[in-house]
Amino acid sequence: MNKRSSWALPYFIFLVLFVVVPLVLIVVYALQDASGHFSFSNITKFFTDKDALSTFALSIEVALENTALCILIGYPVAYILADKSLNRSAVTVVLFILPMWVNALMRTLATAELFTMAGITLGKGTLLFGMCYDYLPFMIYPIYNQLAKMDKSYAEAAEDLGAKPLQVFTKVTLPLSMPGVVSGVMMVFMPTVSTFAISEFLTNNKIKLFGTIIQENINNSMWNYGAALSLVMLVIIGITTFLQGKDSREAAEGGAI
Predict the structure, then answer these.
(1) pLDDT digits (tens, 9 = 90+) for 6-48
(2) Is pTM, for the whole model, over 0.90?
(3) pLDDT band at 233 (very low <50, low <70, confident <90, very high)
C-alpha cells in the first residue's frame, strides 16, 4: 500500500464492476438468442425492423436539430462569457451552471408542466425546447473553456496585419475554438439520440426516440434485442468518439492556418 499505484486499486475495481462488466454483459446478451445460443439474429433484426429503423432515423434528426440549436445559441453565449471586455464578472459564468444543480428529470417535469399551464400542445417543438434547455450548458462550457484559454496574440497579430473583426473571427477565433465545438457536439448529440425520459414527458409519449425502444424491450424482458440495440448505440458512440478525437487534434494543430 506504500506504492502510489496501490491507491488506484479502488478505482480499478469500480471500473471493472460498473463499466467493463456491464459492457461485456451487453455484448453477451446481444449475441445470444432467447435460448442462450450464439446468434446474430438480434443484430440483423434491427436492420430489418422498419419501426426500429424509422425511430433511429427520427432520433438522429432530432439530435441534429437539437445540436444545431445548441450551437447557434451556445457559441455566442460562450464567446461573450470568454470576452473580458463583454463579461467582467465570473458570477455570470456560474449562472449558467445553476440549472445543472437541479436534477434533469425535475427540470424536464417542470418544463412540461409550464407548457401544460400555458396551453401549449406537447410535440416536437416542446421536445426541442426542453432538450435545448437541458443540454445547452454542455455546449457552452467546452466552447467557453476553449475560448478562455486561447492565446489572444493570434487575434492581435491578425489585426496588426490588417484583418477586419469578421476576418479575425472566421480565420483565427473560430478555427481555434473548433475543439471546444466538437466536444460540445459530442456531449449534446449522443445523449439526445439515446434519451427517453425527456421525449416521454415533453411529448406525452407521442414521439419515441431510440432510447425509448431500448427501454421498452428491457422492460418487456426482451433482454437480447434490447442489448443488441444498446450495442448498436455503443458502436456509434465509439465511432463518433474516435472521429471526435481525430478532428480535435487536427483542429488544434491546424487552428489558424
Answers:
(1) 788 888 999 999 999 999 999 999 999 888 899 999 999 999 9
(2) no
(3) confident
Alpha carbons 101 and 141: distance in angstroms, whole number: 15
- Residue 115's CB is within 10 A of a number of other CB atoms, namely 18
Residues β-bridged to residue 32: 38
Cβ-contact 78, 140 below 8 angstroms? yes
Q: How confident is the model at residue 247 (pLDDT cuts 50, 70, 90)?
A: low
Distance (Å, whole) CA 34 – CA 222:
8
Residues 85-114, mean pLDDT to the nearest whole number: 84
Check if the beta carbon of residue 214 is closer than 8 Å to that of residue 229: yes
Buried-state track 61-80, b at ≥16 Cβ within 10 A, e below 16: ebbebbbebbbeebbebbbe
Burial level of 200, CB count in 10 A (0-12/13-18/19+)? buried
Q: Could you give all domains of the chain from N- to C-terminal order, each with its CATH number?
A: 46-254 (1.10.3720.10)
